Amino acid sequence: MRRGLFVGRFQPPHLGHKELIEYILTQVDEVVIVIAAAQVSHNIKNPLTGGQRLELMRIMLSNSNIESSKYWLIQIPDIFDNGLWVSHLKRFIPKVDVAFGNNPFTTMLFQDAGLETKNTPLIKRDLFESRQIREKIRNGDNVEDLLDRDVNKLLKEWKIAERLKAVSSSDSAKFGDANSNFR
């Protein structure tokens, strides 16, 4: 059995993430999906809590008919130390054979730690870019074609648009938040 690793903040999880997970599952038997920086929330880059992201991912993957036996969902807090990050990550996850992604810095960290890496395709990157999706949510724009319907419904119930408006008008958004500048 070959097991892959896919790390993301999933702020919010969108249909591009779903397509990437489906692609990864064509390459490996199982995928460990890490919800990174699980302790960071309520800022412009990370409006959702770790628990909210976990719930949204489970809903999106279930609605996509991806068998639950094919993936692991694991929340991991960030330690804000890039040199130790991969070893920190490995403490929380089962053994993996290959890490998937496209972030050159994260790829370098995995390779430096001796982990095989593979790039994933950039699926409709002009549409599926989390920063732009958060901006659309904040502005009240339609995101139904970007998010799973139940994910979108929960984001509305949780009033994430209002949260994004509040954090974007705060001093930490204007002057930089120490927890917002990492992988």
Could you give the count of β-strands? Answer: 5
The separation of the N and C termini measures: 29 Å
The CATH architecture: 3-Layer(aba) Sandwich
Estimated structural class: alpha/beta
- Catalogue the unreliable spans: 178-183
Biggest beta sheet summary = 5 strands, parallel
Largest beta sheet: strand ordering: 3-2-1-4-5
Q: Mean pLDDT, nearest integer?
A: 91
How do the helices and strands follow one another from N- to C-terminus? EHEHEHEHEHHHH
Identify the CATH homologous superfamily. HUPs
Question: In what range is the share of β-strand residues?
Answer: 5-15%
CATH topology: Rossmann fold
> What is the helical fraction, as a range of percent?
40-55%
Continuous helix count: 8
Condensed summary:
The chain has 8 helices and 5 strands.
Structural notes for this entry:
The chain is of the alpha/beta class and 183 residues long. The protein is built from 8 helices and 5 strands; from the N terminus they run E-H-E-H-E-H-E-H-E-H-H-H-H. It has helices at 15-27, 50-63, 82-90, 104-112, 130-139, 149-157, 160-168, 171-175; strands spanning 3-8, 30-36, 71-76, 98-101, 116-119. A 5-stranded parallel β-sheet has the order 3-2-1-4-5. The longest helix is centred in the N-terminal third of the chain and has 14 residues, at 50-63. The two termini are 29 Å apart. Residues 178-183 have low confidence and may be disordered.
List the helices and strands and how they pair.
Blueprint (H helix, E strand, L loop, with lengths): L2 E6 L6 H13 L2 E7 L13 H14 L7 E6 L5 H9 L7 E4 L2 H9 L3 E4 L10 H10 L9 H9 L2 H9 L2 H5 L8
Parallel strand pairs: 1-2, 1-4, 2-3, 4-5
Helix pairs in contact: 2-6, 5-7
